[in-house]
């Protein structure tokens, strides 16, 4: 897979893929907290999914060994299959969308999608790290703060806004630890411990 068309396509999709992964955080926030913006979340979900679909299709097309490509790009295939846009609850009133009224399934798919996308994000920034170490550190730090801030926000009842979750993640990752926001639940403590270890 060293032909020039493949390498150019792979390089082209690096930034769109990273932006798409980071966009998933505000999408999840909208889905959980801003039902009036459900249509916005749906459009963003479609945009994210289309980026990964196009990347997979174009790279598959340019790959010399198609079978080897499929075997070495399992995460990308999982994302394309399982991150098909999930209809926000605010748009589930129409008859043919009632099947989507399965909260547990929706939540499971959302977090499965997030895990897969973060895995893809990791492989992308690692490839960039080979030539642009500082950019890797910046992207990775931003992603970690956004992700753990969101996890803390949805896991801690006392944290009432995403900005508070981001503040907590920022002071935790920088080891400042003001102590104005602390985890009270077991899940919150697990999340905090994971961030501290990182």
Number of domains: 2
Terminal CA distance reads 34 Å
Give the CA-based shape: globular
Number of helices: 9
CATH class term of the largest domain: Mainly Alpha
| Counted beta strands | 0
Radius of gyration using CA atoms only: 18 Å
Percentage of β-strand residues: under 5%
CATH topology of the largest domain: Four Helix Bundle (Hemerythrin (Met), subunit A)
As residue ranges, the low-confidence spans are 88-105
Provide the helix percentage. Answer: over 70%
* Assembly category: single chain
Mean pLDDT: 74
In the CATH hierarchy, the architecture of the largest domain is Up-down Bundle
**Helix/sheet category:** mainly alpha
SSE string: HHHHHHHHH
The main pleated sheet reads as: none
Description:
There is one protein chain. The protein has 198 residues and is mainly α. The protein has 2 domains: 1-131, Four Helix Bundle (Hemerythrin (Met), subunit A) (Up-down Bundle), CATH 1.20.120; 133-198, Helix Hairpins (Orthogonal Bundle). Helix content is 73%, strand content 0%. The protein is built from 9 helices and no strands. The protein has helices at 4-12, 14-33, 38-62, 66-72, 74-82, 103-129, 133-155, 162-173, 186-197. α2 runs antiparallel to α3. It is globular and about 55 Å long. The two termini are 34 Å apart. The model is unreliable at 88-105 (pLDDT under 50).
């Amino acid at each position: 897979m060293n032909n020039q068309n493949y390498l150019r396509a792979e390089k082209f999709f690096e930034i769109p893929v990273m932006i798409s992964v980071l966009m998933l955080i505000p999408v999840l926030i909208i889905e959980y907290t801003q039902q009036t913006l459900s249509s916005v979340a749906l459009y963003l979900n479609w945009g994210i999914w289309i980026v990964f679909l196009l990347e997979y299709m174009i790279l598959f097309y340019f790959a010399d060994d198609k079978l080897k490509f499929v075997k070495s790009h399992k995460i990308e295939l999982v994302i394309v299959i399982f991150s098909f846009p999930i209809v926000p609850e605010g748009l589930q009133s129409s008859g043919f969308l009632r099947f989507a009224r399965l909260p547990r399934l929706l939540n499971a798919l959302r977090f499965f999608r997030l895990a897969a996308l973060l895995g893809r994000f990791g492989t992308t920034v690692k490839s960039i790290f080979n030539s642009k170490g500082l950019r890797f550190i910046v992207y990775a730090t931003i992603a970690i703060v956004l992700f753990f801030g969101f996890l803390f926000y949805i896991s801690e009842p006392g944290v009432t806004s995403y900005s508070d979750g981001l503040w907590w993640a920022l002071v935790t990752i920088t080891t400042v630890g003001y102590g104005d926001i602390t985890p009270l639940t077991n899940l919150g403590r697990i999340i905090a411990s994971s961030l501290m270890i990182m």
